[in-house]
């Protein structure tokens, strides 16, 4: 993430449920492309709680977690509550109900198991892969992107030149591959729940470590250059004789 800083966690969660709420409230379908393991379970917990607290409004709006890894991964999460975050552990202790026994989310492996997603009713679908490059998430995007009632919420980092990254530029038309171009009428929002550190965390790590050298080896070239420039200011230069970026050999 270079020199970018994430929003506060509380704000990200509020924005996430707000964007999903807006889509289904106008009768649309909300697509959430996610990685199958990790961030998906985190967001499933957030949305399941939100549905429960607003059940009178959403009782007829299904949420699907569509992934071939869904059942196996959730069972593992359910088995290792003791390794989860403090919030999940406390919730389990207070209610004796496993937080990953979702009340409003149906786990499915294929699109065929979501029999009603092609009707005109609202729904929410978590689908992989997270950058819309193939598979179910891309298929659903192609089906839904031309309807302005529908919405897409990107929840993580998108690599340059992937379909998800192109969508974030908000073009009027989007090339989905194989010479196929579609109108992009669905709403597009992004809320970052990435596991990668932002500049604040990177900065804290470096200042605590006080290394003699820093080598930037992972990331997009432009972001690495921005990070390098920021690290070369006076705050860091007092103990950093050299910052090396292999991308430009300088």
Q: How would you describe this structure to a colleague?
A:
The protein is α/β, with parallel strands linked by helices and 250 residues long. The chain is 39% helix and 16% strand. It is built from 10 helices and 10 strands. It has a 6-stranded parallel beta sheet, with helices on both faces. A two-stranded antiparallel ribbon has the order 6-7. It has a two-stranded parallel ribbon with strand order 9-10. It is globular and about 60 Å long. The two termini are 21 Å apart.
**Radius of gyration (Å):** 21 Å
Helical content, roughly?
Answer: 25-40%
Strand line-up in the sheet with most strands: 3-2-4-1-5-8
**Low-pLDDT segments:** none
Number of strands: 10
Q: How much β-strand is present in the residues? A: 15-25%
What class do helices, strands and sheet pairing give?
A: alpha/beta
Q: What profile does the largest beta sheet have?
A: 6 strands, parallel
Mean pLDDT: 86
**Span from first to last CA?**
21 Å
The number of helices is: 10
Outline type: globular
Instruction: Give the SSE order as H and E letters.
Output: HEHHEHHEEHEHEEEHEHHE
